[in-house]
Structure formats: C-alpha cells, structure tokens
Amino acid sequence: MAPRKVGVGNHRIDAAIDRFQVMGYAVADVRRAVAALLKVYGGPAAWPFLEEGSYGIVQAKLLEMEEERKKQPLMESDHSDHHVSTATATSSSAGTSDELGRETRKSRRARRRNIKLAGPEWA
Hints:
The chain is mainly alpha-helical. The protein has four helices and no strands. The chain has a domain at 12-70. Helix content is 65%, strand content 0%. The longest helix has 41 residues, at 47-87.
C-alpha cells in the first residue's frame, strides 16, 4: 500500500473541522476551541484525548464558548448603561466611581455579583 500523502485535508484538525462544520460551527471557532484544549492538555500529544468519544471534549468547549458569547452582549449592555449613570456622578458618590466616571474595582465586583445573584431575566 502506498503511503498517504500529507497535504490539504489529511490533518487531525481537518477531521475535527469536518465533524463540527456539519453541525453548523464556524471553522474559526473549531480551530480556537481545539487550540485552547491542546494548550491546556499539553500540545499535540493530546490529540488522542480530544478525538476520544467523537470529539466530545471539543464539543463541550464549543458549547462553553457559545455560552460565553451569549453572556458577553448582556455584560456589554449592562456596562454601557452603568457607564452612562456613572458619567453624571458627583464627588459625593466617590465610593462607586472617581471624578471621571470610571468604575472602581469594588463597584465592578458588586455589579457583577448582583448580575450573578439576579440571574437571567426570563427565569
């Protein structure tokens, strides 16, 4: 049997892309997920672990990335609303923002904590 030519389409990443492209994931997202997982699990030697169970761990990472992307617009809209309210802050509210309307670390933590405790609006 002749040896397989290493070229376009014969790499492990291409197999992962083929697997998830059918499911509707973008090629760039699959590449990012695989790269992140390979970095966490020790480089190219981790491929058998990623391929195990029909790329189950890659799919979990893609779902995690998708959820982060869904949360990001919510956080950005909360931040923009908060920025408007702190821009008009007076010096009497120095505990939550400085004179330029920037949040302090303490107020950011409190806002994030309130978002986590409140949960999604639809629940």
